[in-house]
Design brief:
Bound molecules: (S)-3-Hydroxyhexanoyl-CoA
CATH superfamily of the largest domain: 2-enoyl-CoA Hydratase, Chain A, domain 1
Helix content: 40-55%
CATH class of the largest domain: Alpha Beta
Structural class: alpha/beta
CATH architecture of the largest domain: Alpha-Beta Complex
Radius of gyration: 28 Å
Number of domains: 3
Number of strands: 19
Shape: globular
Strand order of the largest sheet: 12-11-10-13-14-15-16-17
Distance between the termini: 28 Å
């Protein structure tokens, strides 16, 4: 079916585009618009209106066409042709006008939008720049500083704010088509000029603004190439329009060829794919969730309560005593104040969200809850007691979820008489900020419970990824080898700082030793104490943290762990005492310390992660490699521009990965480096994870 239709309504030529789900500017759409605009030049219409059907205006170029040979008409040429039209062209926007969609609107002579619309140039999130005139037309309309904010941030802005900035001419509510037709009629009646943004001059070009933006991006978008190309492209808007657009084109092609963009595009599709459960029909009926209850008002419970309250749910927060409840609610208040300070919510919104959270100490208050999430301490016995209690008070059909990060969801479910209603919802700290949600499907979890929780995850603004049941699920299970190698590198010859720097420079948000200090060294210590010695793994990998904990050095919270922390600023400093401990313990364990290069540190940690990821795929714990990539980039600070650990494995080549693992197995510790069966079989077939996942 042709996605572009045309009719003349009271002398206005109306081009309607219908290309579900998001009206992406595919080749068929581009060519349909081009031929229609051309034909309209000589018909009886007085002006041309471009409007979209469905939920949204154009959400951008069609990302699924990227990486394939480009097809005419190219979007920048189409937009230039629209701008050159001898008849007025007006864009009417609703929903989202993103990327190439907004660029097309900016090539029109006037723009009208619904008050609920949002506009933006999110290309940076795909490792790209707005390559259809966006870096040239936007500065001409709103100036350089606001342009840089819009394009480097990539976050859409409300249409009202865009109108204030100068991107939109008229904001309306109600029926967009009617309002737009009226708007066009007025323009025609007053012989409004053909306003071409390419003909405007860019105001106030201050070289310092570009220098500041570059400095800011080297910090906040460390390692990423697209932001620097965006700055250069926006800078080229000081040239005559055609020359600036030529430069934009060159830089866009550079971005497109950059492996970073391919990695980010992989993640875009992986995130959407992760929402789909392979063995569930898309049409499965979900349960209705209105009332939500959270058990435990600690840091996690309070954060989870906020996620639901912010999405409009009524939340009951249960604690064991009035004192702990009051403390929990006070933290929630403080977090809301933080959200207001960071500009995430305005004062009124924060008050309204906070008002949706009610505290209680009485389990009877959970009787009407549609969903209960247990977020008590990581103590298996305690969790089982909570679930046994929930089984007696909750109504039939209520979903009972545990926020455990490690425990066996099936064993927890077995303490109830309704294992089919039990599921894991593993949030990440701080829960009201972190986007990842691991949804843990127990052996007996009902399909509609799983479907409900996956959909709910999206409704509360999370990125849900399903995991099967195993110790630590996808994310924390993989982390064990990563942390083990960090500790082994330390005791074998490195320093906390050298290890953190190696991983940080490689792109991780934080180094592993700093992460351990932040999480608290006592957490792992307690978990190890609960295990028999034979279950604790390689003693060289936990000897130093055990000594530190026994000295009272628990990490950031006690002012010292692997590093020392300033009581006021929390600034980190190296500690010679820690190195003395490391050297002493290495000696006691018969280890001869040696210098370890940054490359070796990175490969040992990252390849340990990848190898365990392979086991997780083989066991069916994760549905696909892309799901693991989504978990790691959203939950563990893995650099998104490397596409996630499994995508990264394919990019360096599985042959190389196994070669290094074999070498570590021979040279280091054979037990720690058993290549995963899946890795071996893919290498034997000269294949890749991408092909395996097809
Ligand atoms: C660009 O424009 C470059 C130009 O500057 C220069 C060119 C020369 N293309 O997210 P959802 C699919 S770069 C193709 O679940 P929501 C998506 O895969 C582009 N497909 O819905 C999914 O498919 P499926 C700049 C796209 O309501 C379905 O639509 N634009 C595109 O939560 C629903 O998506 C962007 O980066 C696309 N552009 O959110 C915008 N967009 O059902 C990217 C979506 O098979 N898109 N799909 O899994 C978004 O931000 C969100 O999709 C949007 C809707 C907010 C629009």
């Amino acid at each position: 079916m042709n996605p572009v239709s045309y009719e003349i309504v009271a002398q206005i030529g109306v081009i309607s585009v219908n290309n579900p789900p998001v009206n992406a500017l595919s080749q068929a759409v581009r060519s349909g618009i081009q031929s229609t605009v051309r034909a309209a030049q000589t018909d009886s219409s007085k002006a041309i209106l471009i409007i979209c059907e469905g939920n949204t205006f154009f959400a951008g170029a069609d990302i699924s066409e990227f990486g394939k040979p480009p097809q005419v008409p190219y979007l920048p040429d189409l937009i230039n042709e629209i701008e050159a039209s001898g008849k007025l062209v007006i864009a009417a926007m609703h929903g989202m006008a993103l990327g190439g969609g907004l660029e097309l609107a900016l090539g029109c002579h006037y723009r009208i939008a619904l008050d609920s619309a949002r506009v933006g140039l999110p290309e940076v999130k795909l490792g790209l720049l707005p390559g259809a005139g966006g870096t040239q037309r936007v500065p001409r309309l709103i100036g350089i500083p606001t342009t840089l904010q819009l394009i480097l941030g990539g976050t859409p802005m409300p249409a009202v704010a865009a109108a204030e900035a100068g991107l939109i001419d008229s904001i309306v509510s109600g029926d967009l088509r009617e309002a737009a037709l009226e708007f066009v009629r007025t323009l025609v009646a007053r012989h409004a000029p053909l306003r071409r943004s390419s003909e405007l001059e860019v105001a106030d070009i201050d070289p310092q603004v570009f220098a500041d933006a570059r400095a800011e991006m080297s910090r906040s978008a460390r390692g990423q190439t697209a932001p620097l190309r965006i700055i250069e492209s926006v800078r080229a808007s000081s040239l005559p329009f055609a020359a600036g657009q030529q430069r934009e084109r060159e830089l866009f092609v550079e971005c497109m060829r950059d492996p970073q963009s391919a990695a980010l595009r992989h993640l875009f599709f992986a995130e959407r794919e992760a929402a789909r459960i392979k063995d569930l029909p898309r049409s499965i009926e979900t349960r209705r969730i209105n009332q939500v209850a959270i058990i435990g008002a600690g840091t996690m419970g309070g954060g989870i309560a906020m996620c639901f309250a912010n999405a409009g749910f009524d939340v009951t927060l249960l604690e064991v005593s009035a004192g702990t409840l009051a403390r929990g609610l006070a933290i929630v208040e403080k977090n809301y104040a933080g959200s207001v300070q960071r500009g995430k919510l305005d004062e009124q919104e924060a008050l309204a969200c906070r008002a949706r959270i009610q505290g209680t100490t009485d389990y009877a208050a959970l009787a009407d809850a549609d969903l209960v999430i247990e977020a008590v301490f990581e103590d298996p016995q305690l969790k089982k007691e909570v679930f046994a209690k929930l089984d007696t008070v909750c109504k039939s059909g209520a979903i009972l979820a545990t926020n455990t990060s490690y425990q066996d969801v099936d064993a927890i479910a077995a303490t109830t008489r309704r294992a089919a209603d039990v599921i894991g919802m593993h949030f990440f700290s701080p829960a009201h900020i972190m986007k990842l949600l691991e949804v843990v499907r127990g052996k007996k979890t009902a399909d509609d419970v799983l479907a409900t929780v996956m959909a709910l995850g999206k409704r509360i603004g999370k990125v849900p990824v399903m995991s099967g049941v195993c110790y630590g699920f996808i994310g924390n299970r993989m982390l064990q080898g990563y942390f083990r190698e960090a500790q082994l590198c330390l005791i074998e010859g490195s320093t906390p700082q050298a290890i953190d720097t190696a991983l940080y420079d490689w792109g991780m948000a934080m180094g592993p030793i700093s992460v351990a200090d932040l999480a608290g060294l006592d957490v792992g210590y307690k978990a190890r104490q609960a295990l028999a010695e034979s279950q604790r793994g390689d003693p060289r990998s936990y000897r130093v943290p055990d000594v530190l904990v026994e000295m009272g050095r628990l990490g950031q919270k006690s002012g010292a762990g692997f590093y020392r922390y300033d009581a006021v600023t929390r600034a980190r400093s190296d500690d010679a005492e820690v190195m003395q401990i490391v050297e002493r313990e290495a000696h006691a364990m018969g280890i001869r310390r040696r210098p370890i290069a940054a490359d070796e540190i990175v490969e040992r940690l990252i390849f340990a992660l990848i190898n365990e990821g392979m086991n997780i795929l083989d066991e069916g714990i994760a549905q696909r490699p892309g799901d693991i990539d989504v978990v790691y980039t959203y939950g563990y600070g893995f650099p998104s521009w490397r596409g996630g650990p499994m995508y990264y494995a394919d990019t360096v080549g599985l042959n190389y990965v196994i070669e290094r693992i074999e070498e570590f197995r021979k040279r280091l510790h054979a037990n720690n480096w058993q290549p995963a069966a899946l890795l071996k079989s893919l290498v034997a077939k000269n294949s890749s994870l991408a092909r395996w996942a097809e």
